[in-house]
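Hi Y.,

Following your request, here is the sequence exactly as I used it, all 261 residues.
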Amino acid sequence: MAKADALVKMRNVYKQFGGIRAVEDMSIDIHEGEVLGLLGHNGAGKSTLIKILSGAYPIDSGEIVIGGEQADIQNPRDAKAYGIETIYQTLALADNLPAPANIFFGREIRTRFGALDEAAMEHAAIKVMKRLNPNFKNFHEAVSNLSGGQRQSVAIARTLQFNARIIIMDEPTAALGPHETQMVADLIQNLKKEGMALVMISHDLHDVFDLADRITVMKNGRHVWTGRVQDTDKDEVLQMIILGKLPDGSYAPGIVSEDAA
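Below is the corresponding structure, written out as tokens. Let me know if you'd prefer a different format.
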């Protein structure tokens, strides 16, 4: 259940590349303890919107409010300072390194003599993983030897170690089998229980309906619809994604119907 007020509010966001408006007058709310599924075809603007929140792209106009305060996000470092972490589809893991080294990659713990404090990093890695996936035991294996679900565990643990409040997940179940997908679903449920605000970008309607609390649909850089999963169905959402057509038969503001085009 979403909280009364949103942790993140993006309002009237615009982003243009040359003569192309990738995001136009887009607004969303992201709540603590909730998964927001972000849907749309390639080119719908969802990745651009999320890259604005994660600091990969500066905003052209509009505003971002986090925890009730105006946020100035110009780069990924700014985003991290607001507790925003992104887990890309590639996971960005160093395959030859074990879980603790990946969790602390680029932010290593060092001894007072400047050497890597591997014992401290392993201890911290075990502690954070217990919160997320108590069954994880492979702390000395190179992550290349881990299953897809275990690799997701490592990527998510990295965000938790550095105090994420808002986690963006790009296609978190892509190329995973049923068992691995269930493992990721369990990880997401654990994050929700901890009060994280989660955004899940996905092309898989089944995953979104299984994992998300609310859905936002985008088309041509604009907002089509936002609502609770239980208030719609996959056929309606497909109509929104493909045509921008709302459940009442009308079209979202700024979306031209395919029939009229």
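Strands lie at 8-17, 20-30, 34-39, 61-66, 69-70, 84-87, 166-170, 197-201, 214-219, 222-228.

Thanks again,
Q.
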